[in-house]
Amino acid sequence: MQKTTQQIIVGLGERSYAIDIGAGLLTRTPLFNALPQQILLLTNTVVGPLYAEQVLDQLSQHKVIVHTIDDGEQAKSLVNYGAIMDTLIQHNFNRDCAIIALGGGVVGDLAGFVAATYQRGVRFYQIPTTLLAQVDSSVGGKTAINHPGGKNMVGAFYQPQAVLIDTECLQTLSDRDYACGLAEVVKYGIIADADFFTWLEAHVQELNARESAALTYAIQRSCQIKAEVVAADEHEQSVRALLNLGHTFGHAIEAAHYDTWKHGEAVAAGTIIAAQLMFQLGELTAVEVTRIENLLQSLHLPVRAPLMQLEQWQAFMQRDKKVQDGTIRLVLPTAIGSATIRPMADWQMIGEAIKAMSTSDD
Ligand SMILES: NC(=O)c1ccc[n+]([C@@H]2O[C@H](COP(=O)([O-])OP(=O)(O)OC[C@H]3O[C@@H](n4cnc5c(N)ncnc54)[C@H](O)[C@@H]3O)[C@@H](O)[C@H]2O)c1
Ligand SMILES: O=C(O)C(=O)C[C@@H](O)[C@H](O)[C@H](O)COP(=O)(O)O
Ligand SMILES: [Zn+2]
């Protein structure tokens, strides 16, 4: 059967770029158009052995330096950022070089921040290999590294030149990391598309089985929504904040538990807290909260946060990038298919929602 490629454009004027989606794209030529001679391929110790050779085969006419980082969220660090800068400088990379990210969101976020800052900005390409990176982090230009005090605290908005999504890469992903990507997919349904949410509910089995047609549609629809939101508000002055549903809570969980909670898992637990908060405010029905909870659960995602003191939640949440004049602003679902961003100072109410949706201690 002929393999097809679908293309979605992120419309940003002169900086517009294409997201190509298809099975087996890594081994089809060319990966990207008009690549320069000097290329730094950033990958990690898990993805490199799986896919770097396929990429290098396509780049045999270029001078490619492979830089490999450790696996895991802790690798999105200032130390690794410095080490990559050392590599670029040691090899005399100039402003005409390109950085290619081959990996999940950790590799992509770090590579993008390097690209945004090396010699004040060099070309950047994304080859996302996790579901989460394919549906979310490779698109839209949020690049960052973490700080012990919070997630993505140092970063830049810096768009890639192109994104290449090979859906076949997902077959080697662990069940846990696959589920993490589905958390961000569910997010798009909640904030922007009730029909897509209903479609997800109806295709849980196919999605859990990683069936090609369902998976490709979920990736494509997610990228379409993300591309539209980013094109409308690249620098998160308004509607882009909705992509942060569940993240103010989720980032607090991650920052407190980097070693045990993954990003997608923390987003799922954070999403259900946001839904519960809207239920308490009388703006979301019990049926809607249950639908969100059931969908996340059926996709093997956690729907209860770990036990943490309210003060700890508060400390991390106050560092959220959406805080304005000391007041946190939360993304809250107003229905399945729409969400709003709202300043919230009522910590008693927030604490009640967190408690209701945290693991019980009895
Ligand atoms: N920039 C953005 O807009 C954005 C959006 C969402 C998330 N993020 C960030 O992305 C990160 C999470 O990304 P993630 O979930 O991809 O995590 P990750 O990059 O740590 O990848 C998850 C795991 O899967 C492994 N892996 C990657 N591809 C694989 C493959 N094809 N086969 C087998 N194993 C594979 C990785 O080595 C890792 O162990 C977080 O740091 C989060 O903050 C950024
Ligand atoms: O693209 C966006 O905008 C997002 O918020 C996507 C999120 O899924 C992603 O986790 C992002 O990195 C969060 O950014 P932050 O600004 O809250 O650090
Ligand atoms: Zn996210």
Which features would summarize this protein structure in a list?
zinc; alpha/beta; binds the ligand O=C(O)C(=O)C[C@@H](O)[C@H](O)[C@H](O)COP(=O)(O)O; 7-stranded mixed sheet; two-stranded antiparallel ribbon; NAD; Dehydroquinate synthase-like, alpha domain; binds nicotinamide-adenine-dinucleotide; binds zinc ion; 20% strand; Rossmann fold; 11 strands; globular; 362 residues
At a glance:
By secondary structure, the protein is α/β, with parallel strands linked by helices. The chain has helices spanning 47-58, 78-90, 105-117, 131-137, 175-192, 194-202, 204-208, 212-232, 247-256, 263-280, 286-298, 310-317, 347-356, and strands at 5-10, 17-22, 38-44, 63-69, 98-103, 123-128, 142-147, 150-157, 162-166, 328-335, 338-344.
Question: What layout of secondary structure does this protein have?
Answer:
Elements: E1 5-10, E2 17-22, E3 38-44, H1 47-58, E4 63-69, H2 78-90, E5 98-103, H3 105-117, E6 123-128, H4 131-137, E7 142-147, E8 150-157, E9 162-166, H5 175-192, H6 194-202, H7 204-208, H8 212-232, H9 247-256, H10 263-280, H11 286-298, H12 310-317, E10 328-335, E11 338-344, H13 347-356
Parallel strand pairs: 2-9, 3-4, 3-5, 5-6, 6-9
Antiparallel strand pairs: 1-2, 7-8, 10-11
Bound molecules: nicotinamide-adenine-dinucleotide, ligand LNCXM5UN and zinc ion.
The ligand O=C(O)C(=O)C[C@@H](O)[C@H](O)[C@H](O)COP(=O)(O)O binds next to strand 8.
Cofactor: Co(2+); Zn(2+); NAD(+)
Family: Belongs to the sugar phosphate cyclases superfamily. Dehydroquinate synthase family.
GO molecular function: 3-dehydroquinate synthase activity; metal ion binding; nucleotide binding
